[in-house]
Design brief:
single chain; about 200 residues; alpha+beta; two-stranded antiparallel ribbon
């Protein structure tokens, strides 16, 4: 960002880090960020072009997945959405490269949990692309999960068929209803042990 117009607290905090680095060692001041060519996935896994991409001057955590960003790692910011979408989306702080580019093309279980959380807060369903459907189907295809009370009360067998069909047909978006998504989250939370995903669930 070349001016303070439109800068938010996260941009200003990063500007202060750059200034502090210069005050400590002027000779080691990082060069100004150059426009980057973004190597993004294509198709349903592609995310919007980030507003900026730079390298971290100090260790921090990703503003979305909370993974550590080490000094020298790439990090970036999302663009602000235009009205009326800006009312439903608050720009996050600095994100790791995975969250900027790859979380929809190479989704982890953690990415699915965060996506479900955000969608269920904003609406009544969770929209997943074929790769996300494949990860969720693999995760739910577990006898231990099928034995949990949440699944027994609201069986997800029809949802499993929908997920498999969406993967086979490469369907751009598959919508999972609010109640079904909650059943899946409760079932997975009860079955998981000793994983980062468990703490997040």
């Amino acid at each position: 960002m070349n001016t303070l117009q439109g800068a938010d607290e996260h941009d200003l905090r990063e500007a202060l880090r750059v200034l502090a680095a210069w005050l400590r060692t002027p000779s080691e001041t990082p060069p100004a960020a150059k426009r980057s060519r973004f190597d993004r996935p294509e198709g349903t896994g592609q995310l919007p072009v980030p507003r900026c991409l730079t390298t971290a001057l100090a260790p921090r955590a990703c503003g979305l997945c909370n993974d550590p960003i080490k000094t020298g790692d790439e990090m970036g910011r999302f663009r602000r959405l235009k009205p009326p979408l800006d009312r439903a989306f608050i720009p996050m702080s600095w994100l790791c490269r995975h969250c900027l580019f790859d979380r929809r093309e190479q989704p982890r279980r953690r990415d699915l949990i965060i996506r479900a959380f955000h969608h269920l807060l904003a609406g009544s369903a969770v929209g997943l692309n074929p790769k996300e459907c494949a990860v969720l189907h693999t995760w739910l295809d577990n006898p231990a999960i099928r034995q949990k009370p949440a699944w027994q009360r609201d069986p997800l067998d029809a949802t499993m068929v929908r997920l498999a069909t969406s993967v086979a047909e490469d369907k751009p978006t598959t919508w999972i209803a609010y109640s079904t998504a909650l059943t899946a989250l409760h079932s997975m939370a009860a079955a998981e042990t000793g994983r980062t995903d468990t703490r997040l669930l």
